[in-house]
Design goal:
BirA Bifunctional Protein, domain 2; 37% helix; 5-stranded antiparallel beta sheet
Length: 590
């Protein structure tokens, strides 16, 4: 989406928030509207509802009133006012008065807007003719939100909605949301017994159950193997460090999600919030030559971040996360080639997880707030020029993302599209000229001179926990065979079949097929239903017919009836054939 298209969409959605505010105030006299911004996928409007309480059940009524009001909204009238005038105009709405005072204090103009019958105080953009342009909107849900996001303030009622220029775009989004509910990783995680979040342990701290731990292990080992093939060297680093390490890296002042320090031996230590300062010590552990570079240091490293409780969300946002981190130390003349290698690696890995549509965001500084970033102007200009050159040469569709850079350098973020058409930012490759200065890193060049390296901060999956949430929803819990925690479930029909079933279980397990034996005293139908709900790719059913057909106790002479999780009956197959079939699917990652 171009900048102009994005601006128009934001204006459309912000206009919808105004229409929502008017309609709610008409239906619920005394309600006060607070803020109503456009957000990534829609808009919201906060209300102090006074004596009223509303729920999702009230949304159709509110939406209907919005449609009744819309025809009269043909154009907006804007006026600049003084703070004194704002206080008078909005004397019954303390939220608007507070915002007016804040705007005035910051030297901003105070503007009112009115589409003809609803005066409001606002600084955002709007569409020119809402009655013609704002026809495709939908209210989505009711939630609570503290005024200004501060839990010390009053809890307001927040109504979320969305709007699009066309009916087709709105229908697609609504379909995506409905499908997303079915695929919600928290719901599937519960049904398939993948993970829990225990109140006793604490919010944002997931516990992976046996099936989830297997999935996690598969992902971590897969990413490790793929990196080791490409000369990444794995290390292990501790989970805490002296606070002064993060003061030196700049995280202490620039990163606000670090936990409070603890006292050890009269010194302050802190749980690590990122792996990079530890990996810098690997580079600094001995003198480096230009022949040593690139040096690729990797770790599936667990970090701890104090995320606010309001943003915690299943596996998507947690306080304990493992990052498939890599820090590659390169000569400046190696930057382009190393980025090319990294982009190929990212595309290959993400393709194995079913992500084949992507584009790239070049994440740059916010030019208006350069004080947020470390390093001097010269280093930043050099880094941003270098990373734009990489993007130009990549052959990947890309766009700039001002304000999305890390505080120590610009980055390339790959945005992947999932099965529902939703976009996820997983892989990132940051270019850093600042930390080599902070940590006095150097190598000896071919002329015997000391030279600073550059650092590529690379994460392909990002947080393993978040990536697990993404792929649970990507596959709707129906993992391809190579990823499925249980690939085959053996189901004996009666007690007399259990001994034979146990032999097959042993053979398939010894052939590296992740197999479970369901020998519970339940009916065959109940066992099949449970395996289907857990979306196990294949079930092997053993009864009298299978045992009668079986001869010798060898894989090629032992039969079972095979059924897929989709209910397809594959007939009687001998164990050797089944093992071969599964191994082919695992190898091809299908």
């Amino acid at each position: 989406m171009s900048k102009n298209q994005n601006d128009y969409l934001n204006n459309l959605r912000h206009t919808a928030a105004h229409l929502l505010a008017k309609s709610v105030k008409e239906l619920y006299p005394g309600a006060k509207n607070a803020i109503g911004p456009a957000i990534e996928h829609g808009f919201y409007q906060d209300f102090d509802m006074g004596k009223y309480k509303i729920s999702d059940e009230d949304l159709p009524k509110i939406e209907q009133r919005m449609r009744e009001n819309l025809p009269s909204w043909t154009h907006f009238v804007f006026n600049e006012i003084t703070l004194s005038e704002a206080r008078k105009l909005f004397k019954d709405n303390p939220y608007k008065v507070e915002m007016a005072e804040e705007f005035a204090k910051g030297g901003k103009k105070l503007l009112t807007n009115d589409p003809g019958n609803f005066l409001d105080l606002c600084k955002m953009g709007h569409v020119e003719n809402p009655s013609k342009e704002l026809n495709h909107f939908r209210l989505l849900k009711v939630a609570g939100a503290y005024w200004r996001g501060n839990e010390k303030n009053k809890m307001l009622t927040r109504i979320y909605g969305t709007a699009f220029p066309t009916k087709e775009a709105l229908d697609k989004y609504v379909w995506q949301q409905e499908e997303a509910l079915k695929r919600d990783h928290k719901k599937i995680g519960h049904e398939q017994e993948l993970f829990i979040i225990s109140d006793e342990v604490g919010p944002g701290l997931p516990i992976f159950l046996p099936q989830g731990a297997i999935l996690r292990h598969i992902i971590e080992e897969y990413i490790r193997r793929e990196k080791e093939k490409r000369n990444y060297q794995f290390v292990w680093t501790p989970h805490i460090a002296r606070s002064k390490l993060y003061m030196k890296s700049g995280h202490w002042k620039k990163y606000d999600a670090m936990f409070n320090p603890m006292k050890l031996d009269d010194e302050e230590y802190v749980p690590k919030a990122m792996n990079c300062p530890h990996h810098f010590q690997v580079y600094l552990s001995k003198p480096r030559s230009y022949r040593d570079l690139p040096l690729r240091v990797a770790e599936n490293g667990t970090v701890y971040r104090y995320e606010k409780s309001g943003v915690l969300n299943g596996l998507f946002r947690v306080r304990c996360l493992t990052i498939d981190d890599t820090h590659t130390f390169v000569r400046h003349d190696q930057i382009g080639e190393e980025y090319e290698n990294v982009l190929v690696l990212i595309k290959d890995i993400m393709s194995d997880f079913g992500f084949n549509k992507y584009k790239m965001r070049v994440s740059l500084r916010d030019e208006k707030h350069k004080g947020k970033y470390m390093g001097n102007e010269k280093l930043w200009n050099k880094a941003e020029d270098a990373i734009k050159t990489v993007a130009e040469n990549s052959g990947i569709e890309w766009y700039e993302g001002p304000g999305e850079a890390a505080f120590y350098g610009p980055k390339l973020d790959l945005m992947f599209e999932d099965a529902l058409g939703r976009e996820w930012q997983c892989a990132t490759a940051q270019l850093d000229f600042v930390q080599p200065e902070n940590f006095d890193m150097h190598y000896t060049d071919e002329n015997g001179k000391l030279v600073r390296p550059a650092i590529l901060h690379i994460a392909i999956l990002g947080s393993v926990e978040r990536f697990m949430g993404i792929i649970i929803e990507q596959f709707g819990g129906k993992f391809p065979v190579w990823l499925a925690p249980t690939q085959l479930k053996i189901i004996p029909i009666a007690d007399r079949h259990k001994e034979f079933a146990a032999k097959i279980y042993k053979i398939t397990s010894q052939n590296s097929i992740r197999t479970e034996l369901d020998d519970r005293n339940e009916t065959m139908q109940a066992k099949i239903r449970d395996a289907t709900l857990q979306k196990v790719p294949y079930m092997g059913i053993i009864g009298d017919k299978e045992m009668e057909k079986s001869g010798i106790d060898k894989p090629e002479g032992m039969f079972l009836s095979v059924r897929s999780r989709d209910g397809k009956n594959l007939g009687q197959i001998d164990v050797a054939q089944l093992i071969n079939k599964l191994k082919v699917e695992i190898e091809k990652k299908i």
